Automatic annotation (TrEMBL):
The lineage of its organism: Eukaryota, Fungi, Dikarya, Ascomycota, Pezizomycotina. GO terms for molecular function: ATP binding; protein kinase activity. Residues 24-36 have a biased composition (Basic and acidic residues). SUPFAM superfamilies: Protein kinase-like (PK-like). Residues 212-545 form the Protein kinase domain. Residues 20-60 are annotated as: Disordered. InterPro entries: Kinase-like_dom_sf, Prot_kinase_dom. This is Protein kinase domain-containing protein. It comes from the Eukaryota.
């Protein structure tokens, strides 16, 4: 099954449990256009090739042939820094915008299925989903779609009609967070239809420092210095929310009048954190950073808060904040590099291999280093949970960066690196990393919020009632809700755990279900660290889209399989931390993993991964997906019934001494402090 723009609903969502039985309606599944795509978009494309005879549209015809998708342009006017996880949003900037304030104008390409079939075969746009980031050989820049897009941007931005004015002037007149939309892709650059779409919504949703202070009531001196957006100098877009910048003393001017305000080689690179969608999470993270006590293994408070004056109305609001930059890489990138090194080891003799190999015949990251990372992440979680609204719901290797000890404040005389926890948005995480007691509630939220997609209105009504009983006031969320002052963020399942932790008689930081949910994620991270694996490979999840041609599941490269790389006591600790994971059910691992995998850029049933792709139909894949998700939805509904029964009994003052099921397993997980103590004990014994 080819990847399409609807994969996040058709495959990675519990709505897929119903996909094998409901009729296919491609028009109803068409994704919404990027926000801002509407009458305000400015198009500078006048040609429309329209339908024609087969020879006229054939890619064998020299007129339609794409001459080069590999040779770099000699004097490029655009630079491509990467792509978002959906493969449709590209981080492309005109070269005149480098070393200027970041406008966060990204480029959106059409849904993959809207490409002419022959052109899609050539450009392979879906490869942008699973292309490895920060890897020159396999990264986004090497993709045909990336090279063609760069050439199309060059042609488009150079063809401004005289009446429309200078393209550079048009670009700088656009509001922060606008978009460039590729309305239709074509082989010939002159036929690619691009639109500049000003979007005033992002700036209009920004809140001022005074408005945030009125809500947060922070003590005097809690705010870092405030700088104008025009003082930032764009370096590179690292991620949808992360821009590498430098901070100048003077605002930027198009005439270059500020060029001498700092020495470019001396100014440090820093991170500008901003969101052009769902800014409420950015404000929630800012509040957490400004109220959390400093810790060596948690990202420090912002160096600056950044404000920008809106294009419409002139109101000034907070558009982001500036953080310390950690250039070494994330823990995931380090683990991926190790996997690449293993994959590309040269052939050696058995004796040489035995002499150089580590545990289980694999070259290992030193055990002392793995213990160091594990202990430091556990320390960071304990620290965050000491905060009144502190919890961390998105623990995975992507959100741990590695630093030299001098950057984290620990002893400098070591060759090992330290771990620092990033991203305090409290948005929630991917299903494969979320504890089941959270993921199951999230499944039901999705089903209740989209009854028309599931074609199960009665089920949606039942789930809405149950969710409202478990989380009073629950209502289907909206993607672009404005920020409101809510301690703990906006994830309803996590907020429910936070509320329960403040009303029971246990210590929030150690024994509550809120803490036990984070222990679960810590257990999975410990598995990745000690097994030296970048992914857990648990079922159907966003993670599988980054995992093209994975190793066979029987190779032990998926949670909860262990090799000799993990000490015995740490295996027991990981098991205790992840109690309640369906993978631990007797014989369940194979059934749960029997979903789908990405092979050759196509989704195929895991059970058919070794068969020829020609023998696997789309129907086979959809059936495997629906079967997997049907089992997950069943688990989720059973858990909700268990949860509500416990809630009702508690409300009547009845004790649940005979509690069984998932809730009992959750309560048996160790406390965060106990996990840290056990890591320290085993580390002392083995290193």
């Amino acid at each position: 099954m080819d990847l399409t723009s609807t994969v996040f609903v058709d495959i990675l969502s519990p709505l897929a449990a119903f996909s094998a039985t409901r009729p296919r309606n491609p028009e109803s599944e068409a994704p919404a256009e990027p926000h801002g795509h509407g009458p305000g978009c400015q198009s500078r494309h006048a040609g429309d090739p329209g339908p024609g005879p087969s020879w006229a549209t054939s890619f064998v015809n020299p007129r339609n042939r794409i001459d080069s998708l590999t040779q770099p342009l000699s004097r490029p006017k655009w630079r491509l820094d990467g792509a978002d996880v959906d493969g449709r949003r590209f981080f492309a900037v005109p070269t005149f915008a480098i070393d200027a304030p970041p406008l966060r104008i990204d480029v959106y390409v059409p849904p993959f299925e809207d490409y002419p079939p022959g052109l899609r075969d050539i450009l392979k746009p879906e490869a942008a989903i699973y292309a490895r980031r920060k890897n020159k050989r396999d990264g986004v820049m090497g993709l045909p779609i990336a090279q063609h897009l760069l050439r199309a941007l060059e042609a488009w931005s150079s063809s401004t009609p005289a009446a429309a004015g200078d393209f550079e002037a048009q670009y700088w007149s656009a509001p922060f967070g606008s978009q460039i939309v590729v309305a239709s892709m074509a082989a010939q650059l002159r036929d690619v239809n691009m639109l500049l779409c000003p979007d005033y919504g992002v700036e209009q949703a920004m809140l001022s420092v005074d408005a945030l202070q009125a809500m947060w009531q922070l003590p005097s001196g809690a705010w870092p210095p405030v700088v104008d957006w025009a003082q930032l100098r764009f370096r590179r877009q690292l991620h949808e929310a992360i821009t590498l910048v430098r901070v100048a003393q003077q605002p930027w001017r198009r005439d270059g009048a500020d060029s001498g305000d700092f020495e470019r080689d001396d100014a440090p690179d820093m991170v500008f954190k901003s969101l052009t969608r769902d800014q409420r999470y950015m404000y929630n993270e800012l509040r957490m950073l400004l109220t959390l006590r400093p810790h060596a293994h948690v990202i420090p408070r912002p160096a600056y808060v950044v404000t920008k004056k809106g294009r419409f109305g002139g109101r000034r609001g907070v558009c982001g904040f500036v953080l310390q930059y950690y250039p070494l890489a994330s823990l995931k990138e380090r683990l991926l590099r190790h996997a690449d090194e293993e994959e590309h080891l040269p052939d050696v003799t058995a004796a040489a291999a035995a002499a150089s190999a580590g545990e289980n015949g694999r070259n290992m990251i030193p055990l002392a280093q793995r213990f160091r990372w594990a202990r430091q992440v556990a320390e960071a979680l304990v620290h965050i949970n000491a905060h009144s609204a502190g919890f961390y719901p998105d623990l995975k290797p992507d959100n741990v960066v590695l630093v030299q000890p001098s950057q984290s404040g620990e002893e400098p005389m070591t060759t090992m690196t330290d771990a620092v926890l990033l991203d305090l948005e409290q948005r929630g995480g991917w299903f494969s990393w979320s504890p089941p007691e959270v993921a199951y509630v999230e499944y039901l939220e999705l089903l209740a919020a989209m009854p028309e997609a599931a074609d199960e209105a009665e089920l949606a009504d039942t789930l809405t009632t149950q969710l409202g009983e478990y989380m009073p006031g629950w209502a289907p969320g909206r993607q672009h809700d404005r920020y409101r002052n809510t301690a703990g963020g906006f994830s309803a399942p996590w907020l429910a755990l936070l509320r329960d932790s403040s009303t029971d008689n246990t210590n929030k930081s150690s024994s509550s279900m809120l803490a036990k949910a984070q222990v679960f994620m810590l257990g999975k991270l410990l598995w990745c660290i000690f097994e030296v694996r970048p992914r857990v490979r648990c079922g159907i999840d966003h993670e599988l889209l980054q995992d093209n041609d994975p190793p066979p599941l029987e190779s032990g490269a998926a949670f909860p399989a262990f090799t000799r790389a993990t000490p015995v006591d740490i295996r027991a600790l990981i098991h205790a931390c992840t109690l309640g994971a369906p993978e631990w059910e007797p014989g369940a691992a194979a059934r749960r993993l029997a979903g789908v995998v990405l092979r050759g850029g196509r989704l195929v049933p895991a059970a058919a991964a070794h068969r020829s792709l020609r023998d696997v139909t789309d129907g086979d894949t959809r059936l495997a997906v629906a079967t997997w998700w049907a089992a997950e939805v069943r688990r989720a509904r059973e858990f909700m019934a268990e949860l509500l029964a416990a809630r009702r009994a508690h409300g009547k003052g009845q004790r649940q001494d005979d509690e069984s099921g998932l809730l009992a397993l959750v309560r048996r997980r160790p406390a965060l402090e106990d996990v840290l103590a056990e890591l320290e004990r085993v580390e002392r014994e083995l290193t």
